[in-house]
Amino acid sequence: MPTHPQPESDGARVVLDDRDIVRALTRISHEILERNKGADDLVLLGIPSRGVPLAQRIAERIASVEGYDVPVGSLDVTMYRDDLRLKPARALLHTEIPAGGIDGKVVVLVDDVLFSGRTIRAALDALNDIGRPKAVRLAVLVDRGHRELPIRADFVGKNLPTSLVERVKVTLAGIDDADAVTIQGVVQ
Amino acid sequence: MKRHLLSAADLSRDDAELVLSTAEEMRSLADRPIKKLPALRGRTVVNLFFEDSTRTRISFEAAAKRLSADVINFAAKGSSLSKGESLKDTALTLEAMGADAVVVRHGASGAPHRLAHSGWVRSNVVNAGDGTHEHPTQALLDAFTMTRHLGALDGRRIVIVGDVLHSRVARSNALLLHTLGAEVTLVAPPTLLPVGIENWPVETSYDLDSALPKADAVMMLRVQRERMHGGFFPTAREYSRRYGLDGRRMASLQDHTIVMHPGPMVRGMEITADVADSDRSVIVEQVTNGVAVRMAVLYLLLGGSEPAVGGEE
Question: A34 and chain B: CB distance < 8 Å anywhere?
Fold first, then answer.
């Protein structure tokens, strides 16, 4: 029996459980391969912290389909954020660019939630300082809407209509206890 | 609120580890084609150097520029300072120019503290060496270099050898390495250990040969002749025979032990050329790491709306 979305004790609602996430990532992996006509020239860059394990999982699926290990890295965008000055100085997260670099490659940015689009803008600026990819694409597990910039995702696990007061939380085994996407709303 | 970095003692263990992990990220920038980050765009960093310095000033300048800050260099020679202007008037000038951070080196111990707490400037103050007192960013880069080679410093034995009396590097290192859990031994002739050393969180010894075999890192200090007014040891030759690191002494070190020197070094005095150029020597790497560590400090003090590390207001 598949587990179905069910309410949690603190008013949070599970919108994707572990099996939904597996299916979404598998579909995204196939879509990336289809769009790119294979795994050549692909580089997956996860945005820390939860974009990184997502990028690794997509790479594992691509490897099992194509038999080719796509380079995976991480790209911290902290210093490129437009709200850097509005909050206390923040710790940097890990950036690791695969050995082959990104020049002339098709870079797929991977993040957990697409919201205002400001993180992705920062990521595009960060990429600019690292090299010149042939193309940049965006894969996200959840698109919750409310864009503040002209940015859209190429590969989406789930489109999740939300209101601005709701909070979308992605947990991933490895960083957190288990895989889940939950939405926490206002008290009804 | 935390605003300044005046002493290595200002840093809690969490602060120090945050600086080191941030420096690790900054370090990877050195391998990229574009060595530039936008974090301090539009901020002004003033290098205020009342004492001669090459590597520290250049290191701070490179660090600030790689973070896209504007850098103004103020050297005592060739400025109004040599005409007799006071520290206060210089500080008021900097304030009027809109400096966001002042990196200060001064021959008088406590000058950065005075600058930070006098109310003359609103800038963040970073101590780049004050008299024989402290040099916290040097200690941070030394700790950073050690962790890159030795891993976590808990329980590691660090031996610091030489002119401890005149060394701000030794004091800052002793404080910071203690915070990070290392065991520090200072080795020097009795005349070159400061009064009150028994209150430092360190061991002391007069015998280099017995301290070396257990060391995980050996840091040699320069004999600061310009600060010496009197006879601290009979001859330079006797000093280097008893407290210098040569090939014979290096052979008694453990295989993984690294040899460090904050620079500038006097080859033939505290360290022989074959040791300075050996595989164990990380002296050149210390300079590279210095830029990364100073980027981390400037970023954590200036990068956000308020600093993430440093001493209390």
Answer: no
